[in-house]
């Protein structure tokens, strides 16, 4: 006798975003680095980025974005806070409990997920797992990074690329097939290539270094480009197959906003039309774990995302880590 599938899935019920007030455009960078607006735009698609002022932290940004997502979701009950970040306020403790406290959520479960630029997709899978396991009926998931605090201010290869910001979503328990239902997921890693994107010092292997560069983020751009496009395309195909979707079913592709050329190359490998790409990197830069929810919030606010749209999400980041998921866009208004 057939049985009804009563498993709960994570359903997107609210969304919010926040960017630091300080804007640094390419002309400002050009006055202190050997670069130009044309050079940056041609290679990255970035025109400006938001940067934290001294004293502003990842927790501060996460609280702002989280409050907006909660407002968007209305009366959603929250049992857990998951913070995707590579720039916690301290090495210890995790920053998520401080975010939960800052939002007045009481003694809910709260923890960090660090998969760097893949962090939001990894944390989304984690939050979905909490809901599927009936550990939580409502989860506030925030991607937030003050990534500019990891950069060498004189490094023209990284400073023009990154910005700071936070994006958040509220997830609640729902049924598979309804608008907003998230999943399936496809997640991967390759630790043998961890040195392609790395901050060498500050952890247990090298707590301190006499070389200041060891405390700053570095990346091998050409190799990252090759791996990012290939891995995001592979992962996207895998998750579409699991979802029973074809490329033609995808209405919007929201990839990690790392570089416009990576996004375009990935879409081309997948055979997606250029107008399916959701892109906001021109005014945000690469905001690491915040990039996908920031792009989603912008696209929801300007009408690019419409209820019922089939959306493909894919990300690639340090670790190496990468992953993808899908959802059908719900009727939500950013808070």
From TrEMBL:
Pathway: Lipid metabolism; fatty acid biosynthesis. Homodimer. This is Beta-ketoacyl-[acyl-carrier-protein] synthase III. It comes from Saccharomonospora marina XMU15. Its EC number is 2.3.1.180. Catalyzes the condensation reaction of fatty acid synthesis by the addition to an acyl acceptor of two carbons from malonyl-ACP. Catalyzes the first condensation reaction which initiates fatty acid synthesis and may therefore play a role in governing the total rate of fatty acid production. Possesses both acetoacetyl-ACP synthase and acetyl transacylase activities. Its substrate specificity determines the biosynthesis of branched-chain and/or straight-chain of fatty acids. Residues 111-191 form the Beta-ketoacyl-[acyl-carrier-protein] synthase III N-terminal domain. The gene is fabH. Gene3D superfamilies: 3.40.47.10. Belongs to the thiolase-like superfamily. FabH family. Keywords: Acyltransferase, Cytoplasm, Fatty acid biosynthesis, Fatty acid metabolism, Lipid biosynthesis, Lipid metabolism, Multifunctional enzyme, Transferase. Residues 257-261 are annotated as: ACP-binding. GO terms for biological process: fatty acid biosynthetic process; secondary metabolite biosynthetic process.
């Amino acid at each position: 006798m057939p049985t009804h599938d009563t498993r709960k899935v994570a359903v997107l019920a609210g969304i919010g975003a926040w960017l630091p007030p300080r804007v640094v455009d390419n002309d400002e960078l050009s006055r202190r680095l050997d670069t130009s607006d044309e050079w940056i735009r041609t290679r990255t698609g970035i025109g400006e980025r938001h940067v934290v002022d001294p004293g502003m932290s990842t927790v501060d940004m996460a609280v702002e974005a989280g409050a907006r997502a909660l407002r968007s979701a209305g009366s959603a009950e929250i049992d857990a806070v998951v913070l995707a970040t590579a720039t916690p306020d301290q090495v210890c403790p995790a920053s998520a409990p401080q975010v939960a406290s800052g939002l007045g959520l009481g003694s809910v479960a709260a923890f960090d997920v660090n998969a760097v630029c893949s962090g939001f997709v990894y944390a989304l899978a984690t939050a979905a797992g909490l809901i599927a396991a009936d550990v939580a009926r409502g989860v506030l998931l925030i991607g937030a990074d003050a990534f500019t605090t990891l950069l060498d201010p004189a490094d023209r290869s990284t400073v023009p690329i990154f910005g700071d910001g936070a994006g958040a979503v509220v997830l609640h328990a729902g049924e598979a097939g309804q608008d907003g239902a998230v999943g399936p997921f496809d997640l991967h890693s390759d630790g043998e290539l961890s040195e392609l994107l790395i901050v060498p010092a500050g952890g247990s292997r090298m707590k301190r270094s006499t070389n200041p560069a060891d405390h700053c983020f570095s990346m091998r751009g050409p190799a990252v480009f090759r791996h990012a496009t290939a891995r995001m395309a592979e992962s996207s195909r895998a998750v579409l197959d699991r979802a029973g979707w074809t490329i033609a079913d995808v209405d919007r592709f929201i990839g990690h906003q790392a570089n416009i050329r990576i996004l375009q190359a990935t879409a081309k490998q997948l055979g997606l039309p250029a107008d399916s790409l959701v892109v906001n990197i021109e005014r945000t830069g690469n905001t690491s774990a915040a990039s996908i929810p920031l792009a989603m919030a912008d696209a929801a606010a300007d009408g690019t995302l419409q209820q019922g749209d089939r959306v493909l999400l894919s990300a690639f980041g340090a670790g190496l880590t990468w992953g993808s998921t899908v959802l059908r866009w719900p009727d939500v208004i950013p808070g």
